[in-house]
Design a protein that fits this description.
The chain is mostly helical and 309 residues long. It has 13 helices and no strands.
């Protein structure tokens, strides 16, 4: 189904705002909860909310035929993405970590070329180089010991997991009902993360106060249910690499929110990294004009006539 440009723009704006604020909200909530338990609780609750909305279409679950799709999607989009993301936030400032995670659109451009047959050209190659240059710029302090090298590596692997999950969901669209794919991946992934947290962390370590409850509610309702419904619908409607380009606004908003409300530093290296990543994502998703076949034929014909003369 094709939607109007205005409706598409509104969904993109909502997605960017929700995800832009998420890192700072999660960073605060993590002061009152172990990381894996927080990741498990918020993703599982998000899955419950999605399942409630998807329940009228429960006949489309088709678990017997579709369980591999549900499991693979849950592994990359939830267990690895949210698990690594939540642990990584314990090592790095929210703004910096968000920049690493949002290398994902660059990786989507690469994976979509490899697995979906989307166009790859020199502009995209240049964009990939610039994207990784941006990551190097913001990560160089980690190598010097000023920032966590572990956090930087986790951030990069978080981006890789999300990119694989995004391209995979695009590849298998049509094999499952989208809302149930979302709901089941978060129910399965949330259960795994909660189980892992229960084995390695303590429920008694959670402080059930206002900031934690707000972070959990925001995460499950907006950070999971609302935003991922928007994200999946946009990816399924358009070319994966082009849709992913719009998320380059997210780290900008995240860094701005973290700077204003969490008083995190806004360094020159972070600015350079942001600019390089944004430019890289733009080039990866830059539209290339298709050659005019009629004009090309005319040029070829003139060259042929000239060579004959």
């Amino acid at each position: 189904m094709k939607h109007s440009p205005a409706w598409t723009a509104l969904r993109i704006l909502l997605l960017v705002v929700i995800w832009g604020a998420s890192f700072s909200v999660y960073k605060v909530a993590l002061n009152y909860s172990p990381p894996l338990l927080f990741a498990g609780v918020r993703t599982f609750l998000g899955g419950v909310i999605l399942a409630v909305f998807a329940w009228p279409q429960r006949h489309q679950i088709r678990w017997k035929q579709s369980w591999p799709v549900y499991v693979i999607s849950a592994l990359f989009n939830v267990v690895l993405f949210f698990g690594l993301q939540t642990v990584g936030l314990s090592y790095l400032p929210a703004g910096l970590f968000s920049v690493l995670v949002y290398l994902e659109p660059v990786l989507v451009g690469l994976f979509a070329w490899m697995w979906l047959g989307e166009i790859m050209n020199w502009w995209k190659v240049l964009g990939l180089v610039l994207g990784f240059a941006g990551v190097a710029s913001i990560s160089i302090d980690s190598l010097a010991g000023h920032l966590s090298l572990i956090g930087t590596v986790i951030g990069i692997f978080t981006a890789i997991a999300w990119a694989i999950g995004t391209v995979y969901s695009k590849k298998v669209q049509g094999r499952t009902q989208m809302l149930w794919l979302l709901a089941i991946q978060f129910l399965l992934g949330g259960a795994v993360l909660t189980g892992a947290g229960s084995l390695t962390e303590s429920w008694a370590a959670i402080t059930w106060n206002g900031p934690f409850l707000f972070g959990t509610l925001y995460a499950s309702l907006f950070g999971i249910a609302a935003s991922w419904s928007i994200w999946f619908s946009l990816v399924h409607e358009g070319e994966a690499s082009r849709v992913a380009a719009f998320t380059f606004f997210v780290p900008m908003i995240s860094v701005l929110v973290a700077t204003l409300f969490l008083h995190e530093p806004f360094t020159p290296k972070l600015v350079i990294g942001l600019v390089a990543i944004v430019l890289g994502i733009y080039l990866v998703n830059r539209k290339v004009k298709k050659p005019n076949l009629k004009q090309s034929a005319e040029v070829t014909e003139r060259r042929s006539e000239a060579s004959c003369n």
